[in-house]
Amino acid sequence: MEQKSGSLVEWLVPLAFIVCAGWLIWHMPAFILDWGGHGDQLAAHFLRVDVAPNMPVVMGTHIDILDLASLILLPILGFIGVMTVRRAPMEFESWKPLDRISVFIGRVTMMLVVVLMCVMLYEVFTRYVLSAGTLWANELSLWLACFIFLCAGLYAMQQRSHIRIFLLYDVMPRWMQHICDCISTLLIVTFAFFLIYGGYGEAFQKFGRWELYGSAFNPPIPATVKPAVLLIVGFVAVQAIINLISDWNAEPVVHTAADDIDQDELERLKKAVGAEGVGDLDVTRGAIQSDTTRHG
Q: Coil, helix or strand for 127?
């Protein structure tokens, strides 16, 4: 996997994926009404939130051409994104085929952070400059933050950047480290299994009736976040198993205080003060002490 990252396609594909996913989620009542039964309350809600009410219906009685296009484009964009994602130099070197999915979700999460920032800045501008705050920015920010939090956890698992305590782990022999790795993976998988097993019924009910948040904007946060929790936790468990297999024969890593040193930052500091440790301004201890003595 080459370490070339930041190309235009890595920005556009996740952004297009977010647009299609957002449209599909916002218009999900059309699919529920046509595929899962008809409800007067849900139908009234869909009439209120339909972004393109005059588009020609191509399936059932509610699904229009844009809804169908989003449904078709979403997996296509996901496949393109997974195949075109590139590992950045600072990212973990393990690159199994399934790791691409987690990294692409990480790229989508990065773009969601940008979208969230734009929403918050727009709300600040309209509220404090135009004195006309929106009814949707607060709930939309909360909604986006939920997905960012969940997807960032999956990306952190793939990057091995979650919180870990190495005090005892590093002094263990390799065979004992393998045992600890297996136990921790088993605990993650067990937690994911019981969470999905216990929460599937509630998540399915919330999604089926398209449960809303209950605010003025009234987004379907309960209907979408609850299934997303179960889905992402399942992905995290699968990623934990992949990490265990990928790192099984890897050389043990000894963690020291030097791990917290940013080499790039050190290089920038060296360039700033010169190759000998000083630049235009002598900031060495001896120079400071001499200057203090001279002016004392």
A: helix
